[in-house]
Specification:
516 residues; Rossmann fold; 5-stranded parallel beta sheet; 11 strands
Length: 516
């Protein structure tokens, strides 16, 4: 015998879909529409952080209030003598309660997120908050015939904290209203929770550390920001006995820029070393792979720069999770998650023999690509205005940000034009805003020093006669190679030796073409 009416079942199902969908894809808005019904207020195709806005959409409070009232009514109905809810009734009700509990505790969870991102926080205790959550959880889910264990409640609590944290970080850190940016936010969310959040909550929450992530994209597009967001959004278990989480999110990110230090120091930073194992090793040292706990993440920036011998050792870590410190023979175990980033074409690096194919396939268990600023602006011309406003708000007080934004946009329109390729991406835009603030102008790199920013920029240089024959040859060889990234094939088309093709590839132009 069903306990839910058809109308209640339809609403509960819509709320369940809302709870478990990717909040940064159009499916989120569709789920809102289904749950809100005639009360739905349109507010765009996706949730995006724009200047002057916050994360609350216009439909959230309406849906949450209705869901709360229905959950209370169904709880009382389930406890009536003779009530026999079906398996589907209980499943729909449980999803409804998950949503209700989230919004009953949403402000408390946000405060917990802020504590977890505070560098001063050494231990994340919240026994009083958990006791309130446990009481509410039991009031809804302690039903006849339903087995609700303590570990189930602790897991619900940890999941609610993780969802609030992941949403807050993804929404606020990856800013922009273009669909290119929306797809990036959605990719980050899937990297944390997969495309199936129900399966994630059931079994995958403790296994995501086994899946490495490879982040690719042009320089200056926020690859490290994406990595930090993933690292600080990981699932962290809660222990009811101690009233605390197993770790603090901000303590779980260990980043290394592989292009900034020598191979010996890279190896030491990653694997650690024993005293006396090389010149300057004056004491034993733990590497990040040893320091990183089970809920942390090691981030390897510029993975395309790593030396071949270190690639072999890193491959062993990914395959067996075992490694050794320099100068030691004892195996240690890596317990965390590994993420890498590069702006290089790793396919070309593999073909050139500089990067191992087996390491690449181990790294890209999950693959994210960050869009260029040019892609974002092409997708939505208003995106430049929005991003300038966001950057300005980080530099000057809120009341001055609008005036600074208008100064910057006016200068860009008058001196760079709407077709400027922004070869330095968001990093260059930030520099432009600072320069206009200080000097009233921005001086980009002279064209002769700039990497070719796009096909349009290359053609404009050709038409204007700005290229030497040597430069023209390099860029044309790169263009042909990019169309078919095989040195032999490119050499045949160009009637050149393959070694000449390999030597004359312009890596910056190649990355720009790949980005388009």
């Amino acid at each position: 015998m069903r306990v839910l009416t058809p109308e209640e079942a339809a609403f509960a199902e819509a709320v369940g879909n809302l709870s478990y969908c990717n909040p940064f894809l159009p499916e989120r808005i569709q789920a809102e529409r289904a749950a809100a019904g005639d009360a739905f207020v349109p507010h765009g195709d996706v949730w995006s952080m724009k200047a002057g806005e916050d994360s609350e959409g216009p439909n959230i409070h309406t849906i949450a209030a209705r869901a709360d009232a229905m959950a209370v009514a169904l709880r009382d109905r389930f406890r009536e003598p003779g009530a026999k809810p079906t398996v589907r009734d209980l499943s729909l009700y449980r999803d409804l309660v998950v949503y209700v509990l989230y919004y009953r505790f949403v402000d408390d969870l946000l405060a917990l997120v802020q504590r977890g991102l505070d560098p001063a926080t050494e231990r994340l205790d919240c026994p009083a908050l958990y006791r309130r959550f446990e009481k509410e959880c039991r009031s809804f889910l302690d039903l006849p015939g339903v087995d609700l264990a303590e570990e189930d409640i602790a897991h619900y609590f940890a999941c609610q904290y993780q969802v609030r944290r992941a949403f807050n970080l993804t929404f606020n850190w990856i800013v922009g209203g273009s669909m290119a940016t929306a797809r990036l936010r959605a990719a980050v969310w899937q990297s944390v929770f997969t495309h199936d959040m129900r399966r994630y909550r059931r079994v995958l929450y403790s296994r995501m550390g086994d899946l490495p992530v490879l982040i690719t994209g042009p320089s200056g597009t926020g690859k490290e920001l994406v990595a930090r967001g993933i690292a600080m959004s990981r699932y962290i278990p809660f222990d009811p006995a101690t009233g605390s989480f197993a770790s603090v999110p901000i303590q779980g990110f260990f980043g290394i820029n592989l292009s900034a230090i020598t191979p010996t120091l890279i190896e030491s930073a990653l694997f650690g070393h024993r005293r006396g194992s090389f010149t300057g090793a004056l004491e034993d040292r733990e590497g990040w792979l040893q320091t990183c706990g089970p809920h942390g993440m090691v981030f390897l920036d510029e993975i395309g720069e790593i030396a071949p011998d270190i690639q072999v050792k890193l491959l062993r870590v990914l395959e067996t999770r075992a490694f050794q410190r320099i100068g030691d023979t004892a195996d240690l175990r890596f317990r965390g998650k590994l993420t890498a980033a590069t702006n290089r074409d790793l396919g070309a690096e593999i073909e050139a023999g500089r990067f191992r194919a087996d390491l690449y396939y181990r790294l890209c268990g999950d693959l994210i690509r960050t869009p260029s600023l040019r892609d974002q602006i092409a997708d939505d011309p208003e995106e430049l205005r929005n991003l300038v406003r966001v950057v300005a708000a980080k530099i000057v007080p809120t009341e001055e940000a609008d005036r600074l934004s208008e100064d910057v946009l006016r200068w860009i329109a008058g001196h760079l034009g709407k077709d400027y390729p922004w070869p330095g991406n968001v990093r260059e835009l930030e520099q432009c805003v600072r320069n206009v603030l200080v000097r009233g102008e921005y001086q980009p790199l002279p064209r002769t020093q700039q990497p070719a920013g796009s096909m349009a920029g290359f053609l404009a240089d050709v038409q204007a006669g700005r290229l030497t024959i040597e430069r023209l040859t390099d860029l044309y060889i790169t263009l042909v190679y990019q169309q078919d990234p095989n040195y032999v094939h490119a050499a045949e088309r160009l009637a050149l030796d393959r070694r000449t093709v390999k030597a004359r590839i312009d890596e910056a132009f190649l990355r720009a073409l790949d980005g388009e």
